[in-house]
Design goal:
By secondary structure, this protein is of the alpha/beta class. The chain has two domains: about 190 residues, no CATH class; about 140 residues, Rossmann fold (3-Layer(aba) Sandwich), CATH 3.40.50. It has 19 helices and seven strands. The protein has a five-stranded parallel sheet with strand order 4-5-3-6-7, with helices on both faces. A two-stranded antiparallel ribbon has the order 1-2. Helix 7 runs antiparallel to helix 8. The longest helix has 20 residues. It starts with 13 loop residues before the first helix and ends in an 11-residue tail after the last strand.
Amino acid sequence: MTLPDLTPGAAIDWAAVEAWLAPIAPAAELAATPQDHAFHAEGDVWTHTRMAVEALVAQPAYAAADPVARGILAAAVLLHDVGKPSTTRVVPQEGGERITSRGHSARGEGLARVALWRAGVPFGVREHVCALVRYHQVPFFGITREPREAERLALRLSLILRHDWLTAVAEADGRGRRCADPADQVRIVDHCGLWAEHCREHGVLATARAFATPHARRVWCESEAPRSPDVPAHDDTTCEVTLMCGLPAAGKDSWLRANAPELPVISLDAVRDELDVEPGDSRGEVIALARERAREMLRAGTSFAWNATNLSRDLRAQLLGFFRSYRARTRIVYCEATAADQRGRNRQRDAIVPARVIDRMLERWTVPDPTEAHAVLYVTPGDASWPPTS
């Protein structure tokens, strides 16, 4: 699958667009999803999506972008609300009811990642799209935050996405709607422009914020206290833990054998075999034993690798926090194979992971980003042009 190729300022071939979108979120499903009238008086999600795409291709910034960037922007706008069908609810409020779709951005990110991976979209391109879908509403409210909080938000997100692309997507979202009060739409679009200027002022409109050292970035991301990214942080780490991350059969074991043969490895698969626990069964006993073995090495200041899928950001945060509580430096190695290669390798494993288990994993699959650890290494097929660089 290639990303949509929409010529700037030209008429849109909606039949081709709907065919591209169909494996991810059929247009009929989007058309059947209502929206809150106050901010979407134009009607359903598909009507809004069409209007947003038309607003995007009319932007000078879209016309000035290179073909790869245009594909990323077009895909992000087409997919920015695909999470709404599964998150839209009618909730009571004083004087009546309202429609809400809380959580649709995160849900849309997950749907986009799985669909684009299965379709063979290159890793870097896909993750740019997913980041724009996940954070597409930030320019609407980012500039309204307290100045230090707004600065932190801009700097942190610069490690994950390009703010010039984000504001282009958000502006298309803002222009591609009708509000019950027209002043609300004017405010939304104005906020997108102000967010772009805010990011330009802090030097992160099109690039990631540079930090004095990886440890300074790690401390800055963890700390709520004011810190300058340009000031090195005291590094008192005593060892390094390598956290492997990726779907089953993505190449994690192979990477460790080839690149870190000297590291002791705590493998959840090995512990599971030791305890005779089937994949997908309760992991409590497996995790407890693995963590106790990790504690022994952390107390001794011994570097090691923790080898498991670790696909959920929340799970990674718990583990990384645990390692850092013993003053460990943290590195994530993310491994990915194409969908076809992953299926083939899984079939060749001694212990095949059932399809139903992998499907559950895909529901919580997130790709680690530089805000999570001292270092993140991406071992992926094809290009690895994500995340943005400083």
